């Protein structure tokens, strides 16, 4: 099932501030889409609007081309997994999972036996055999999460929404469940939208990432698209390690405030500007300046350098390719940052690097 | 050191204020032997008072549980103008003297009251009859279910209710299958509180009772009548029975709340 | 699946509902013709217990039917009148003073001339106000002035709610007026001083008796003669003595059929029989046994030794209830002036 969001607006009922601000997004059938962003970006609100749990003041939500704005949440046939699982504490695991089927009107309600077999099937799928008779408070966090998922899947929803589903789990369990969830998605082919504030989680799970900030989608695309062609400095900073080097553009050159950084040509207009660069894109230039770089540790071809300028003693730490035959302490060196992007006031003035020296193969 | 000092002060207070009255009640009840005590229950008026207490309490609990659930759910589920005022009003009976609670009904349903003439023609007694006593008890015990239930519904139930909605449940299904069972321990606790209060209510019921032995006397009223009639042993025997009933309810409520706390931590 | 609506629960709910509804349905039958409600005042519990039993038996014999069931409710006379006014289904009222029944008559519950419908101003028994003191009369209380001595605590209920208390009050008032040089002003001064010796004001005569007898409060209880005699008998003569002051009031607690209620309940005939029974020799004898002075001279003569000789004045000599009520007990009346300052 595809989902289409068309200029969705939701304002806070308390102070009238926009929570979701003119969001448009298409989620392809069978895709796994992650809504990512810092907390307060409007991710969960958007998810709840799709579910029908929160109203929106403008725009349209369509599922498979049909508007659902006037459908109540319970009529949308959407599976929803809540951050804190929201299991029914007074019901057994089996009753939790079977709930959606057991409350159907008599005409469409499966028999008890049918419900029981569906529950058993889901427990198998969730790798939770034999816990049907237990109660939620007797399960571990990871087990509860899977019960919540099974419950959401039991009614055969056309769309699955996950709201920070791993937030309350410890890191180890989180990683396990992640891989398992990806497998499950591939097996079921169910269109899934995940809300998370964890970029790695999104990258690992989703084929499309929509990065949100201040109620808007800043950029949507594959993880790689976001990382390699960030639409804004915010996207670049959110999608990976970034070193920000302040400076200015003057007469077609970017000049860093720090000494011992080579100026490079740019087409941007004159004025204050920052270079944003992935640390691995920084080049160390021995014998080209007055700074000192101290190799702290190495990892394959990469090394972590502490870089200290000769004048004013300013420092940087970055990880980059160790030049051939370099000593652990490189004196009289300088930095080449021309592989970076130049930003001013949260927008690019030169979005693509001037020199294409990136070595993507070495990135992790 | 301070801890022990405060603990002993509390112990002392309880030993002086809380323990002696019930103990004395039992001592007085048994002062002329078990036989005399048991003879109390041969009096049809005493049996009638026990029966009426049970019936008034049962009616009150059933009605106020319904009202309380409705009020708590409405107040925790929806935001509407006047909601804050409504919450204050629900709590009003806690601060208003029970006697006022009785007089209100007299004002409405007494023969000198607003509906007095209508009721008189209808020929159906409300005041100075069990229905009036139920009304008076309803007023006094109105807040208990609502107040114990509301915080539970407001804080714990929200996500579970939404989960049920996403699974296709309608309003009533959510209420019956998720909200109420989820808050059932709070509900039981509120019901038991209502029960204890309803059984022991004197002031409000006294105003609308007419004190007719065998007809409109509940146990607390009958205790007063017995005491004023110099039937000391009988009065204290009834008091002991009432105390026993109340203690049972309080213990039941304690057990429920302890279970509540345990499940709250686990789930 | 979730078995919240399992059959057992539903059945329990139905039972609870039925149990709750049951008392709402019953009272109607309870007021069938064979049941009478006598709304009475405080110190008559023991009296009407016996009256009710004997009348019921006599009525059954005379009419060849099942015994009539009589219920009697007790409380402060004023409070009881108020209940009947608000709808308590009394067929008969037997209250502490005529004024309380007058109020019911004013509101149409019975005829205005109710007091003329039975002999002796509808008063089957009279009583008087006496002093109940601790055994041996340690404070040596003999007469009204003794109540004002230092260290004497007097127990009497609140005249606003209690009929007995009004009699107490008026006995003191009437005595003060009858003293040489007695005027309303000297009487007022006497009462003001008297109420300065009152530590608690109970709402009814029985409450005041309990304060004195069971809780041990005070040195002297102003009480109905019958209440005082009952207290000495019930709680042992070794604990209390009765002091009859030389001059006191003649208390006349009247009885009446509440016409409108009795008609509605279909009990007029039996209610009338009940109040008449009080004036019969049997009823009069029962009254005497419970220390109420019979109005029948013959029965009174038989019981001469039970009742001390006493000089009394009656309510008419003070201007009648309507005037007394207005002057003394209405809001802002003499009693308010005495007690608030």
TrEMBL record, chain A:
Superkingdom of origin organism: Bacteria
Domain ABC transporter: 3-239
Keyword terms of this UniProt record: ATP-binding, Nucleotide-binding, Transport
Protein name: ATP-binding cassette domain-containing protein
GO molecular-function terms, A-Z: ATP binding; ATP hydrolysis activity
Pfam families cross-referenced by the UniProt entry: ABC_tran
One GO-annotated biological process of the protein: quaternary ammonium group transport
UniProtKB/TrEMBL annotation, chain B:
Residue ranges constituting the ABC transmembrane type-1 domain according to the UniProt record: 50-257
Species this protein is from: Komagataeibacter melaceti
Subunit relationships: The complex is composed of two ATP-binding proteins (CysA), two transmembrane proteins (CysT and CysW) and a solute-binding protein (CysP).
Keyword Zinc: no
CDD domains per UniProt: TM_PBP2 (cd06261)
Role, per record: Part of the ABC transporter complex CysAWTP (TC 3.A.1.6.1) involved in sulfate/thiosulfate import. Probably responsible for the translocation of the substrate across the membrane.
Gene Ontology cellular component annotations, sorted alphabetically: plasma membrane
Keywords, ordered alphabetically: Membrane, Sulfate transport, Transmembrane, Transmembrane helix, Transport
Record localization: Cell membrane
Descriptive protein name: Sulfate ABC transporter permease
Subcellular location, principal: membrane
Record field: transmembrane: 9-30, 50-73, 85-110, 122-142, 229-252
Presence of keyword Transmembrane: yes
Membrane topology (UniProt): Multi-pass membrane protein
UniProtKB/TrEMBL annotation, chain C:
Record keywords: Periplasm, Signal, Transport
A biological process from GO: sulfate transmembrane transport
Pfam families noted in UniProt: SBP_bac_11 (PF13531)
Principal cellular location given in the protein's record: periplasm
InterPro entries assigned: Sulphate/thiosulphate_BS, TAT_signal, Thiosulph/SO4-bd
GO molecular function, one term: molecular carrier activity
CDD domains: PBP2_CysP
GO cellular component term of the entry, any: periplasmic space
Subcellular location per the Swiss-Prot or TrEMBL entry: Periplasm
Similarity section: Belongs to the prokaryotic sulfate-binding protein family.
PANTHER family xrefs: SULFATE-BINDING PROTEIN
Name of this protein: Sulfate ABC transporter substrate-binding protein
Source organism: Komagataeibacter melaceti
